Recover the amino acids of this structure.
């Protein structure tokens, strides 16, 4: 089992935990808007680290994005496998062509 699959399972388990004992449960208790806000914050922090931070800082922020993305997907009951399937679907397709197909 890979790291992201294990993390996805841990997030699913912790969603039901006591919010005073689990960060994941505390995010879920605050609702999807708070979860989405945290995902956005982490994205901004990663962008800043990409421009002015150390490699280690960017790696840490990238990990935070992946974690909060998995929490967000869990909140919407979307399995990470759906994201991987979408990436597989896009494999070999030009990014320009793929983006153009979404705007139609």
């Amino acid at each position: 089992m890979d790291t992201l699959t294990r993390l996805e399972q841990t997030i699913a388990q912790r969603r039901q935990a006591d919010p005073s004992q689990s960060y994941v449960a505390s995010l879920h208790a605050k609702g999807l808007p708070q979860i989405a806000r945290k995902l956005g914050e982490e994205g901004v922090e990663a962008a800043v680290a990409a421009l002015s931070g150390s490699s280690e800082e960017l790696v840490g922020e990238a990990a935070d994005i992946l974690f909060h993305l998995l929490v967000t997907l869990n909140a919407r009951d979307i399995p990470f496998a759906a994201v991987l399937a979408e990436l597989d679907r896009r494999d070999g397709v030009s990014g320009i062509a793929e983006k153009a197909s979404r705007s139609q």
